[in-house]
Amino acid sequence: MTESATAIIPTPRARVQAMMEYHPPLGSRDALRLDFNENTLACSPKVREVLGRISAGALTRYPEREPIEAIVAAHLGLAPAQAALTNGVDEAIHVLFEAFLEAGDELLLPVPTYTMYEVYASATDARVVAVQAADDLLFPFERLLAAITPRTKIIAIANPNSPSGSAATRAQLLEIASRAPHAVLLVDEAYFHFHAETVMDLIGTVPNLMVARTFSKAYGLAGLRLGLLAGPVELMRWVRRVLSPYSVNSLALACLPPALEDTAYLDWYVAEVLAARAEFEAALDQAGVRRWASRANFVLVEIGRQHAEFARLMRAAGVLVRDRSSDPGCDGRVRITIGTREQMRQAALALNETLATRRAGNEAQ
Ligand SMILES: Cc1ncc(COP(=O)(O)O)c(C=O)c1O
After folding, report:
1. pTM score
2. What DSSP character marks residue 222?
3. How far apart (Å, rounded) are the C-alpha atoms in residues 195 and 167?
4. What is the pLDDT of residues 283-340, one digit of tens each?
5. How far is ligand 1, taken at its centre, from the CA of residue 286, in Å?
6. How many Å lie between the centroid of ligand 1 and the Cα of residue 267?
7. Ligand 1 pocket test: which of 87, 114, 247 has the largest number of ligand atoms within 8 Å of its C-beta?
8. CB under 6 Å to ligand 1: residues?
9. Whole-angstrom Cα distance, residue 331 to residue 7?
10. Which of 63, 153, 155, 282 could form a disulfide with 105 if both were Cys (CB 3.0 to 4.6 A apart)?
């Protein structure tokens, strides 16, 4: 290749040039994984059975999502046209933003919240309007209402929210939907199973409401990348135009019916996590660590100035946690996923040891 040939390369859109590359801090995770809010154990054994039976021949075919979409829709009390399977909720967010956000539009977000809303918004020509929660990290309802403008096009609310664990009420969500009829209200129910409150039943009756669900958390299928976007048919038709027809692969599709059917496994896992959360919260209180009340499978804690050192020491003790200090209003705060009671007893031990090591280090200084 000549020098002049290498000098001319195509340039991407200006928006993309300004974007930051997002790398989740995964790295080596051969430890107790309390950093990404995944299921910390396994998916249902029924899903594993189905996976083991998938033939090589089945992999030669393009995936057919519609029959499975109909099964999931029925499971959620929706019409098939009201539900689309996606490659994780991340793809649901991506296609929704792609379909609706254009120059001059505003994406309204209570913050701190899930990082990918801002990442996908930054690829569009819309403006992000962030509404900061107070120090209690409760849902900033009044401030959010006040931030609605005629340009608001999407309002994205993770419910329960991450990393705070707090939740908006159904009445608050309904009020927001009615005060912004010109905007899509996306309620991201990734952590629904731990919260048990939903607005999914309002799909189709509230004309601008859309709901996302994931199979990455309670179901334990983060590696398969399975999500769902639900909404009124009038909005779903635009989303389907930009949704890639094969983005949900055939392994994921095959695993969905057994995952949905095995409600006993799901109920067991959720009950285990909730019991573990109560125990772990008591351990945090005993250790004198400030924490925020959580409606999900994680808890946000105040570590202070030495947050990075804390995360490093916890990793050295075999427990991965997620430093959220760079989130707006979260300086010094670390998020810890809740697993089983046994795992959380191990985490509490590591936490107490880490805090003691840190205290000893501070006193020696
Ligand atoms: C609020 C929220 N939405 C969506 C996701 C991503 O879900 P998925 O794995 O289905 O893409 C996460 C993952 O952490 C999340 O916290």
Report:
1. 0.96
2. G
3. 9
4. 999 999 999 999 999 999 999 999 999 999 999 999 999 999 999 999 999 999 999 9
5. 31
6. 20
7. 114
8. 37, 88-90, 114, 158, 162, 188, 190, 214, 216, 222, 227
9. 43
10. 153
